[in-house]
Specification:
This protein is an alpha+beta fold and 312 residues long. The protein contains five helices and 19 strands. Helices cover 21% and strands 41% of the residues. Helix 1 runs antiparallel to helix 2. The longest helix is centred in the last third of the chain and has 18 residues.
Length: 312
């Protein structure tokens, strides 16, 4: 087989990156404590792209016997999590519990440079020998073999959004295409989305209402629980919160990858959206977004401003 080692790839994305390729390729010594292999590299890339919120964003990665978890965060208002379960891989081995930071932009660029951007079925192998070692990537595309690596970063654990303490009040499972189309239409009209979940009278006729208004007018979209797009709707009490479209954009973009999305509203206004993404083998991967309500964001901005004034 032809061997193509990607060297100097970091230069394409900026030599200032703390994580670099090229020199780390083949530099791992000692046995691997993490080995993950899949015959479908495209699936991994597509899923991770769903939480690529901005260029050079750093992800917090946790690896254990259950698989990988990648977390990214935008201030304290938006958090996105990807769960790559071990079932997604043809081979998965992990000794112990590992956590580290990762430049997600560089990681995805590395995968694309190594060949996952081609239209062919690409096999991917990820290995890691533990702290102090790079994460090595190997890809096989027919007779072409490519390899590269990326150094982990030191990164603090992401903020705890305390979703488990929010006590979800309402829940709706809906197909992703209709909700994506509705959110894109509403985004044109205003800067904030008002989301309401209304219990049915009689029970079984709940309604998901979304509306916004701006300089051009107002727009409202309703999804009754009886519509074909909704498969489950549990609504015990009416909830209404506003969310900024600037925070909803990553969710709207990621909806194009999903089959269905489960939307939960929690006490205090926290919104949880779990996207269910299936690959060619029909294995379901979950991408989770936690989004603070506008009132929570404004409170955070006020506290930050007060803190800055005190520092001055």
């Amino acid at each position: 087989k032809m061997a193509s080692t990607i060297s100097g790839a970091a230069m394409a994305s900026g030599a200032s990156h703390a994580s670099t390729l090229g020199s780390v390729a083949g530099s791992q010594s000692g046995p691997s404590v993490v080995i993950a292999k899949t015959d479908n590299a495209h699936s991994v890339v597509n899923i991770l792209t769903a939480i690529h919120l901005k260029k050079d964003i750093e992800a917090y990665c946790v690896v254990d016997k259950n698989g990988f978890r990648f977390t990214v965060q935008k201030s304290n208002c938006l958090q996105a999590n990807v769960y790559l379960k071990k079932d997604l891989f043809t081979r998965f081995e992990c000794e112990g519990h590992h956590q580290f930071g990762l430049n997600l932009t560089l990681f995805l660029e590395c995968l694309n440079m190594l060949g996952s951007s081609s239209g062919n079925q690409i096999a991917l192998s990820i290995s890691y020998a533990g702290e102090g070692h790079p994460i090595l990537l190997q890809m096989v595309d027919g007779d072409v073999y490519s390899s590269g690596g990326i150094h982990p970063l030191e990164k603090e654990e992401p903020a705890d959004f305390c979703w488990e303490d929010c006590k979800a009040i309402n829940r709706v499972i809906i197909r992703s295409v209709p909700i994506k189309d509705a959110l894109q239409e509403l985004d044109w009209w205003g800067q904030k989305l008002q989301l309401r979940m209304v219990p049915g009278r009689p029970r079984g006729h709940q309604v998901l209402k979304m509306n916004t208004k701006g300089m051009h007018g107002a727009c409202e979209v309703e999804f009754p629980s009886t519509c074909d797009a909704i498969s489950e709707f549990d609504c015990s009490q009416e909830t209404m919160q506003e969310y900024r479209f600037s925070l909803l954009q990553p969710l709207i973009k990621a909806l194009s990858l999903a089959d269905k999305v489960c939307i939960r509203s929690g006490q205090g206004g926290m919104l949880q959206a779990q996207l269910m993404i299936k690959d060619e083998s029909r294995i379901t991967t979950f991408v989770e977004f936690l989004i603070c309500a506008d009132a929570m964001v404004e409170e955070e901005d006020t506290q930050f401003g007060a803190s800055a004034m005190q520092d001055d």
